[in-house]
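step: validate -> pass
step: tokenize input -> pass
step: predict -> running
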Amino acid sequence: MNNFQQHLQKAIRLIPVQIGLIALFFCVYHLLLKYIMRETGLDLGAVGYNNHVVPLYAQPSFDLSLWILPALVVCAGFLYLCHRYLLSDISDSRLIGIATVCFIAINISVAQIDGYREIGAEGEKERILTLLEPYTRTSLEYYGDVPRVDELGIRRFLKDYSKPEVFDTLSGHTRTHPPGGVLFLWHVSGLFGYNLISASLVTIFFTALTVIPIYRLAGMLHG
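step: predict -> pass
step: emit ->
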């Protein structure tokens, strides 16, 4: 019995096993939520259980292309680096640096799996990298509300954020969160211009910095 428990604990520590367990959890969560929505009429707004991978506002796609190869290479490289460095005597700063680079590479390569998307009205279609495409959904995402901050001024935007005359004109995503996301992209646009590339890449680079406090927190909790 003790040997079995030791083998089980060792298996759970393996990163591929952890990834599999997390994937299984979200799969069960998705199926359970889909069942609840279908049977009880639970309303998640624009997210529908027939069209989306609930609770995500996303539609499943099984189109394979060569764009999946960079993501596979990055993920394989990530697993290799984990195997090589996680249990080694590598310095904290170097490990954080590697983790940050991996975070950025995974985000970019996975976001780019579908290659290109076509946007625009019929007859005026434009191909755009899938990495940038979410920021073109101005009626749905934070990025579409950046001009509103310029129009109203940051002070009035914050002061009247919850008032109907402002709130009801904001994008769907903005109306479900505090104004921080919009203000972040507003600052980014002030530094780099209001364009899709800077918004996408700066968002990824900035969120990659969360590796640092998470690593420090893990060190405080587990030594």
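step: describe -> DSSP finds ten helices and two strands in the chain.
step: cleanup -> pass
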